Amino acid sequence: MENTVELTNVSKNFKGFSVKNMNLQVKQGFVTGFIGANGAGKSTTIKMIMNLLKPDDGEVKVFGLDYKAHEKAIKERIGFVYDGNVFFEGLNLKDIKRIVGPAYKNWDDALFYQYVEQFNLPLNKVIKTFSKGMQMKASLAIALSHHAELIIMDEPTAGLDPIFRRELLDLLQEIMIDSNRTLFFSTHITTDLDRIADYIAFIHNGELVFNKSTIDIAENYALVKGGMDLLDRDTQKAFVHMHSAPTGFEALTDNIKEVKNIFGDSVVIERASLEDIMYYMKGSKCYV
Ligand SMILES: Nc1ncnc2c1ncn2[C@@H]1O[C@H](COP(=O)(O)OP(=O)(O)OP(=O)(O)O)[C@@H](O)[C@H]1O
């Protein structure tokens, strides 16, 4: 099975917002970062992947199975981490383990204690006394202790300090050594993805703009800068979006080769960061 998650023509309509006809494949064995602006539909999509929200249309398959017939089998194999306190605040980790552990066939006590130690988490302190970072680690320890093949995380690094974020990313890298494992997580902090993502899925206004490998993005996307005199309707075709100013233009291309063919050495081509791409693309092919 090549895709761990497969969304086919999935739509969800809220008043004033829709996820529209989404086709998304999450590749098995890789890290996919899910990016998009506030309110773009990341959490809504993740909730549909987790069957916490039912699509109005389309099909969601996880491990090649649908939720109607296989909910329990699917959930057994997923570890879900999201920004917010998942647990009863008044409980400690020992209590939580006692409640959550038996729910999973593959729950591994030894592994749980290993993560608790590795993350420096107290077993006997109630969760409400944990810092945000500790709560995230606790959530992750629980999610990892049943040998989940798919880890889904909704903004796991939100609100964490830079050092802690880095530690978390190192840890995620470590858990990906298991080549069967798939990691799908949403984030606003696109620089987190430079370190660990293999694929980037970009959603804007409820629509999937692209789902591409980071190699593909690095090879094809770039910022192009040059003088206004270089532009005409034909040359602009190489750009996804462009800003112009009296001093010249700055544009995003998804086809560096074509830009080189058209402009040769007369423009400056610079690496486009994910933030640049998000800023420029805003969802559609568009020219100024
Ligand atoms: N249950 C709901 N009922 C109505 N509207 C909803 C519901 N859940 C989400 N929305 C709306 O759907 C839109 C997308 O929300 P969503 O939480 O999926 O975005 P997001 O990309 O995760 O945003 P953020 O990065 O800010 O968390 C928002 O406009 C939100 O108000």
TrEMBL record:
<protein>
    <submittedName>
        <fullName>ABC transporter ATP-binding protein</fullName>
    </submittedName>
</protein>
<keyword id="KW-0067">ATP-binding</keyword>
<dbReference type="Pfam" id="PF00005">
    <property type="entry name" value="ABC_tran"/>
</dbReference>
<dbReference type="InterPro" id="IPR017871">
    <property type="entry name" value="ABC_transporter-like_CS"/>
</dbReference>
<dbReference type="InterPro" id="IPR051782">
    <property type="entry name" value="ABC_Transporter_VariousFunc"/>
</dbReference>
<dbReference type="InterPro" id="IPR003593">
    <property type="entry name" value="AAA+_ATPase"/>
</dbReference>
<feature type="domain" description="ABC transporter">
    <location>
        <begin position="5"/>
        <end position="230"/>
    </location>
</feature>
<keyword id="KW-0813">Transport</keyword>
<dbReference type="InterPro" id="IPR003439">
    <property type="entry name" value="ABC_transporter-like_ATP-bd"/>
</dbReference>
<dbReference type="InterPro" id="IPR027417">
    <property type="entry name" value="P-loop_NTPase"/>
</dbReference>
<dbReference type="GO" id="GO:0005524">
    <property type="term" value="F:ATP binding"/>
</dbReference>
<keyword id="KW-0547">Nucleotide-binding</keyword>
